[in-house]
């Protein structure tokens, strides 16, 4: 069983919702990322989304755009991101890591080469913003050969027919983008999320994560009531940005923030504050 | 003229005489190029756009409205002009200019914005957005938005805002909001990123008028079809004038819309050589250029797979050209296909060569061309010199140079 499937099965067995933080690899510098990943796991992260910097992040709002620019200024490449995952895996064999980014760095590396190297580094999947199922066939096949999941996005504009189409290729989990917009944009509306997640569950038998617009403990708790995973990006990246000049403080500060989210999710899950040891 | 009303796929059958050319396929692919590489949020809106477009193409009412606008508002057909004095000076082939510079708003861009704005109206959209480089597409979009009473927001890189001041002011006069984009290289590609972000956010009421044959399917096809009026007219005009097809076509390639507009109706005419001209900027060898077809390699950007200027890590590189309209690291996917298939040949012309051609046409023919178009003129000059006087070259004069006065003056050490 893949690490992603194992993790969701384990959580489901305990009635818990996954907390999934997103950080841009190499932001604000490459040395921070691996210690930060470990700190996030210690603070209650169940799966980590690691952003691969790309020069033209079309689906990202200003916060993640700036994180990308900081990482690119340090020359962070896809190859280096894979190295970071390899370093993380030396100490953590259980927490799934999903890369999130855009297709072009993978195109240039080559689909086969990427799949092999990512698999060998200990990556568990990839979420490629600009790769809808219509264009994904070749990459999905090669990733699957290496035991990697290609995680698909579902949007508020996804029709029933599109959800069905996505269900045919999706693996690992699916990611419901809760708002029309870029990362870090508007506020989420928990009631419409519940309806859409219901629609997704009617057609797809994979865990459903929800992201975009989750900014604090309150929204994390709301989403935890309907989703299998709560995905938090810009709220974390914004905190990293404010500490860019004192990077040594980043792991502790982010861990503290995640701790608050974790507690809210636990309350929503009905497992109570800190009542379950992890 | 315009797109035949009685056949929903007429536009794809036009290029020629007994042409087997039938691109793109149903998924928007031109061989390995093109496609729909966008976030899931945009997939359904793109499906809707395709449906609306196919509906309009099959609707005689839409066609007659489009034809009337192109005639009465844009001023079509644009003339075909035999540049006799210039041809004589070159001493080779006869050079004919397709005068897109005489269109309302001064470039070919309006052919496309008229079409897409009618489409937006049909789809009930109330808000128009666009990206622009030189500002020509922004002006052409602001113009049609003003006419139809639609809200209009134009994204433009901060660098371009500075070098195309006059067009920024024109857009504002027309009632558009011009947003200076400060991210990335602050040029056309970043303006396109920002327009995509806006579209994803406001997709319910907003129509994104892409200005060239790039972006996700169906844009490359749709923009080509709206621009193909250039080639259809030119083909009929030159046949009438000279009794035969031209020996060569030449057009500048930024995203590639004026070029494809000219080329498309000739694709099946295999005896006609096709040349696309990219911006070599400071020179290809300097790396400071905007010539993905000539010096780049395939990748995925802005919704399609095509030739790009990118580094070994897949990051898009900054480009350079004296002409803002050519300053783009990608190119429409159909050009990538035409290059690989060998049907078209692509070359590049430097800033200095384009400037020389700019001055040359101005002095010999009394026509001040856009700097973008000047790249095509420079290439045509060299090509014509290798040909015989009984041969002919058809050049797309895609726009007029009014917008470039400051740039040229600055280059000559003057401040206007
Ligand atoms: C006059 C003119 N020609 C050419 C171009 C390049 O665009 P395309 O390659 O799509 O024709 C522009 C773009 O702004 C333009 O203004």
UniProtKB/TrEMBL annotation, chain A:
The keyword NAD does not apply. It is an enzyme of class 4 (lyase). The active site is at residues 49, 60. Gene3D superfamilies: Aldolase class I (3.20.20.70). Its EC number is 4.2.1.20. It comes from the Bacteria. One of its GO terms (molecular function) is tryptophan synthase activity. Pfam families: Trp_syntA (PF00290). CDD domains: Tryptophan_synthase_alpha. InterPro entries: Aldolase_TIM, RibuloseP-bd_barrel, Trp_synthase_alpha_AS, Trp_synthase_suA. Pathway: Amino-acid biosynthesis; L-tryptophan biosynthesis; L-tryptophan from chorismate: step 5/5. GO terms for cellular component: cytosol. Keywords: Amino-acid biosynthesis, Aromatic amino acid biosynthesis, Lyase, Tryptophan biosynthesis. It catalyses: (1S,2R)-1-C-(indol-3-yl)glycerol 3-phosphate + L-serine = D-glyceraldehyde 3-phosphate + L-tryptophan + H2O. Tetramer of two alpha and two beta chains. Belongs to the TrpA family. The alpha subunit is responsible for the aldol cleavage of indoleglycerol phosphate to indole and glyceraldehyde 3-phosphate. This is Tryptophan synthase alpha chain.
Automatic annotation (TrEMBL), chain B:
Residues 1-23 are annotated as: Disordered. Keywords: Amino-acid biosynthesis, Aromatic amino acid biosynthesis, Lyase, Pyridoxal phosphate, Tryptophan biosynthesis. Pathway: Amino-acid biosynthesis; L-tryptophan biosynthesis; L-tryptophan from chorismate: step 5/5. Residues 75-399 form the Tryptophan synthase beta chain-like PALP domain. It catalyses: (1S,2R)-1-C-(indol-3-yl)glycerol 3-phosphate + L-serine = D-glyceraldehyde 3-phosphate + L-tryptophan + H2O. One of its GO terms (molecular function) is tryptophan synthase activity. InterPro entries: Trp_synth_b_CS, Trp_synth_beta, Trp_synth_beta/beta-like, TrpB-like_PALP, TrpB-like_PALP_sf. The beta subunit is responsible for the synthesis of L-tryptophan from indole and L-serine. Tetramer of two alpha and two beta chains. This is Tryptophan synthase beta chain. It comes from Thiorhodococcus drewsii AZ1. The gene is trpB.
């Amino acid at each position: 069983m893949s690490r992603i499937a194992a993790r969701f099965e384990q959580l489901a067995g305990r009635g818990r919702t996954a907390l999934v933080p997103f950080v841009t690899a190499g932001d604000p510098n490459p040395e921070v990322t691996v210690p930060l990943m470990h700190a996030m796991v210690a603070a209650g992260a169940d799966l980590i989304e690691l952003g691969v910097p790309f020069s033209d992040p079309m689906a990202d709002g200003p916060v993640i755009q700036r994180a990308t620019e900081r990482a690119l200024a340090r020359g962070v490449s896809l190859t280096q991101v894979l190295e970071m995952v390899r370093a993380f895996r030396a100490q953590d064999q259980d927490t799934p890591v999903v890369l999130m980014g855009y297709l072009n760095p993978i195109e240039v590396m080559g689909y086969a080469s990427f799949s092999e190297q990512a698999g060998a580094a200990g990556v568990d999947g990839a979420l490629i913003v600009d790769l809808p199922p219509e264009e994904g066939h070749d990459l999905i096949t090669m990733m699957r050969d290496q035991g990697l999941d290609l995680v698909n996005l579902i949007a508020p504009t996804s029709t029933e027919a599109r959800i069905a189409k996505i269900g045919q290729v999706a693996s690992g989990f699916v990611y419901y983008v809760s708002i029309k917009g870029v990362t870090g944009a508007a506020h989420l509306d928990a009631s419409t999320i519940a309806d859409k997640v219901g629609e997704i569950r009617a057609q797809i038998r994979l865990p459903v994560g929800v992201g975009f617009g989750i900014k604090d403990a309150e929204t994390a708790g709301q989403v935890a009531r309907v989703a299998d995973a709560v995905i938090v990006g810009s709220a974390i990246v914004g905190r990293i940005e404010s500490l860019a000049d004192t990077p040594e403080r980043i792991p502790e500060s982010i861990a503290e923030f995640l701790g608050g989210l974790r507690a809210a999710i636990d309350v929503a899950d009905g497992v109570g504050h800190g009542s379950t040891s992890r | 003229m315009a797109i035949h009303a009685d056949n929903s796929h007429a536009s794809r059958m036009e290029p020629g005489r007994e042409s087997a050319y039938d691109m793109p396929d149903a998924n928007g692919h031109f061989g390995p190029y093109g496609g729909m590489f966008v976030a899931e949020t945009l997939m359904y809106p793109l499906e809707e756009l395709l449906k609306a477009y196919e509906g309009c193409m099959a609707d005689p009412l839409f066609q007659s409205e489009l034809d009337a606008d192109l005639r009465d508002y844009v001023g079509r057909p644009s003339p075909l002009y035999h540049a006799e004095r210039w041809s004589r000076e070159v001493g080779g082939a006869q050079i004919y200019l397709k005068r897109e510079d005489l269109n309302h708003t001064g470039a070919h861009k309006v052919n496309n914005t008229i079409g897409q704005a009618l489409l937006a109206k049909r789809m009930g959209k109330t808000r128009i957005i666009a990206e622009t480089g030189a500002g020509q597409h922004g002006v052409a979009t602001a113009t049609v938005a003003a006419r139809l009473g639609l809200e209009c927001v134009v994204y433009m890189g901060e660098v371009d805002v500075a070098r195309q001041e006059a067009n920024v002011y024109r857009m504002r006069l027309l009632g558009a909001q011009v947003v200076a984009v400060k991210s990335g290289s602050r040029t056309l590609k970043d303006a396109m990123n920002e327009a995509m972000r806006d579209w994803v956010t406001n997709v319910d009421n907003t129509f994104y008028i892409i200005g060239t044959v790039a972006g996700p399917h169906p844009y490359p096809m749709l923009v080509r079809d709206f621009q193909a009026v250039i080639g259809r007219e030119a083909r009929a005009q030159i046949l009438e004038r000279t009794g035969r097809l031209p020996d060569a076509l030449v057009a500048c390639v930024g995203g590639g819309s004026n070029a494809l507009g000219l080329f498309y109706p000739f694709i099946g005419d295999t005896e006609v050589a096709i040349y696309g001209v990219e911006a070599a900027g400071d020179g290809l060898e300097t790396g400071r250029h905007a010539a993905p077809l000539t010096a780049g390699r395939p990748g995925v950007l802005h919704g399609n797979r095509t030739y790009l200027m990118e580094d070994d890590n897949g990051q898009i590189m900054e480009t350079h050209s004296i002409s803002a309209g050519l300053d783009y690291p990608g190119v429409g996917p159909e050009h990538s296909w035409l290059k690989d298939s060998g049907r078209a040949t692509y070359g590049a012309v430097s800033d200095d060569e384009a400037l020389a051609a700019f001055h040359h046409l101005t002095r010999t023919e009394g026509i001040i061309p856009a700097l973008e178009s000047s790249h095509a003129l420079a290439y045509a000059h060299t090509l014509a010199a290798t040909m015989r006087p009984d041969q002919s070259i058809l050049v797309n004069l895609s726009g007029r140079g009014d917008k470039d006065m400051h740039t040229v003056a600055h280059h000559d050490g003057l401040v206007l």
